[in-house]
C-alpha cells in the first residue's frame, strides 16, 4: 500500500474534506456513516476527498487494518483523490509544530502522572470517575513552579479562555477548555504524539476546509481550535454527524464489540448509513450510481457551510 509522509495538495485551494480512521480494526456501521458524510460533503462543495490513516497511537494499531479499511471504502465506492496520508510518517512535522508552540510559550513540560492528577482532585473532594474527562489542574505550569525538580514526562498546551464555534449541524457551541479539559497533552510520556496535535497539523497540511466526523468528537473541537490559533493555522468548518448506537445505548465502537461492516451488499450498507444521516431512500444497482443519486440530497441539506 502506497504511503506518503508529505502534504497532499493543501496549496491547491478549493474545498477539501477527509475521513481519518484509526487502524485498530475494520470499519463498522458507525465508521461508514462518518466516511459517507465526509465524502458527500466534499463532493457537494466541488472539492477533494482525502483519507488519513491516524496511526500515531501505534500500540493500538492492528497490522493490516489500514489496508483492510481502504478496501472496505473502495467496495463502497469511496476512493480518495490522493494517496492516503499516514500519521506514523509525520513525526518531523509534529516536532516542528511543538517547537513553534514552545517558542511562543504556548506549551510547557509536565511531570505529572495520571495518579498525580487523580490525587490532586481527590484532595479537592472530587474523585475521578472513568466516564469523566480527567481535567489537568495546571500543576506544572511555569507560573506555578514548573516541574519542581521532577523530570519532564510530557508536553502540554496552555489552555486559556472560552472557545466558541458554530457547528453546521449542532449549532452554536462553546467550551471553557481550561475548566472542561485543562491543558491537554501534545506529546505523551511514552514519546508518542497526541491525537490533538497530529489532527491539527495534518488538517492544515492537507488543506482540509470541511471537517465532517461523528458527534462523539465534537468535544475535541475547542482544543483543536485553540491549537490552530496558537500555531497560526486556519480553522475548518465543522459538522458532527449523528452516532450509530449499540444495543445498550452507547456509541457503536470497536471497544464495545462493534461488528465489522457486512459488505456482501455495499449498496445496502450505504443505505443504512444514509438513514442515520437523515437522507432519503435511494435505489441504485451499484455504489457509484447510489452515491451519484445521494449527492443531491446531501447538497440540498448541507451544500454550504452554515457559519
From TrEMBL:
Keywords: Aminoacyl-tRNA synthetase, ATP-binding, Ligase, Metal-binding, Nucleotide-binding, Protein biosynthesis, Zinc. Belongs to the class-I aminoacyl-tRNA synthetase family. GluQ subfamily. ATP binds at residue 254. GO terms for cellular component: cytosol. InterPro entries: Glu-Q_tRNA(Asp)_Synthase, Glu/Gln-tRNA-synth, Glu/Gln-tRNA-synth_Ib_cat-dom, GluQ/Sye, Rossmann-like_a/b/a_fold. A motif ('KMSKS' region) lies at residues 251-255. GO terms for biological process: glutamyl-tRNA aminoacylation; tRNA modification. The keyword Glycosyltransferase does not apply. L-glutamate binds at residues 18-22, 54, 195, 213. This is Glutamyl-Q tRNA(Asp) synthetase. Its EC number is 6.1.1.-. It comes from the Bacteria. Catalyzes the tRNA-independent activation of glutamate in presence of ATP and the subsequent transfer of glutamate onto a tRNA(Asp). Glutamate is transferred on the 2-amino-5-(4,5-dihydroxy-2-cyclopenten-1-yl) moiety of the queuosine in the wobble position of the QUC anticodon. A motif ('HIGH' region) lies at residues 21-31. GO terms for molecular function: ATP binding; glutamate-tRNA ligase activity; zinc ion binding. It is an enzyme of class 6 (ligase). Binds 1 zinc ion per subunit. Its cofactor is Zn(2+). Zn(2+) binds at residues 110, 112, 136, 140. Gene3D superfamilies: HUPs. Residues 18-258 form the Glutamyl/glutaminyl-tRNA synthetase class Ib catalytic domain.
